Amino acid sequence: MDAPHEAVEALRGVVSAMPGGGESRPGQFEMCEAVASALDQDRHLVVAAGTGTGKSMAYLAPLAAGGK
Fold it and tell me: Buried-most residue among 15, 18, 20, 45 (CB within 10 A)?
């Protein structure tokens, strides 16, 4: 499995474990994949997203899934 896929699966696991099953936010999963890809390729990434997008989890999931 590649790092972006592993990170997205980790995020799905966290979201589904939330009370009520969490809320699926497509932008959050896209951001998670982009962050994991940037970490995997050792490059920088700048992301801008509105309040409530799920930025914090999208940044943290790739690290929890084994990012650098």
Answer: 15
Distance CA 51, CA 48 (A): 10
Reported as a single tens digit per residue, the pLDDT across 15-59 is 999 998 888 889 999 999 999 999 999 999 999 999 988 999 999
**Burial of residue 28 (number of CB atoms within 10 Å: 0-12, 13-18, 19+):** buried
Report the distance separating Cα 10 and Cα 53, nearest Å: 17
67 conformational bin, left if phi > 0, alpha if psi -120 to 50, beta if neither = beta
- Is 67:61 a contact under the CB 8 Å cutoff? no
Handedness of CA 30, 54, 35, 29 (dihedral sign): negative
* Structure tokens belonging to residue 40: 């995997």
